[in-house]
Amino acid sequence: MDRKQKKNLRKRNSNISLSNYETFMKFMRKGKFMMPYCQTCKKNIWPPSDYCTNCFNRLDLIDLKRQDGKLIEIFHSFVGKKQIKSNQSITREVDIIGLVDFTGVKLLGSINKTTYNYINTFNCQNLKANGLFDYSRVRVKLQKCGILENSLFYKFKLVSI
After folding, report:
1. Where do the structural domains in the chain lie, given as residue ranges?
2. Cα–Cα distance, 103 to 124 (Å, whole number)
3. What is the C-alpha to C-alpha distance for residues 41 and 39, in angstroms, rounded to an integer?
């Protein structure tokens, strides 16, 4: 294919509208999370697609930063973290990961340590009967998102308990 043919092909492809997946990825590169949403079913749709999996209507993209998510669980990750030696004890840096439900769409993302400490202080005073933390009332918002080293990332902040 010569240069002129390639140029014409690019010109033709620029007239084609982007799919919701391509648009989703374009926004993620800019740090915006645009969730496919069905106006008919009133549901978030995941993974990104052009049509609702329930009613097959076209989907709109909405900004997820406006929605609150429900914290389901918190995990600690030591993967890829360096060890810190102090006074003959070895500790490891830790990432705090939260599983958050945004009306049917569940995302894993990091939670900052201030939010984590606040949640745990609250939960230590309000343990379930079985001794487990109860995250059911904890609401978070998407604070930051994007693409880092070819992977999607999400960061959450506390909204309310």
Report:
1. 1-64, 67-161
2. 27
3. 6
| pLDDT value for 31 | 93
Structure-token match 């929605």, residue found: 67
Buried residues in 61-70 as b, exposed as e (16+ CB within 10 A): beebeebebb
pLDDT, tens digit (0-9, with 9 covering 90-100), for 82-122? 555 656 555 556 788 899 998 888 999 998 877 777 777 66
| Separation CA 138–CA 103 (nearest Å) | 14
In the chain, the N- to C-terminal Cα span, in Å, equals: 60
35 to 5, 20, 81: CA distances (angstroms) = 36, 9, 31
Question: What is residue 92's predicted lDDT score, i.e. its pLDDT?
Answer: 57
Q: Three-state SS across 31-64?
A: CCCEEEEECCCCEECCCCCCECCCCCCECEEEEH
Element (H, E) at 28: helix 20-29
What SS3 state is found at 120?
helix
User: Which is more confident, 65 or 55?
Assistant: 55
Report the 10 Å Cβ neighbour count for 92.
11
Token pair in block for residue 1: 């294919």
pTM over the 0.90 mark = no
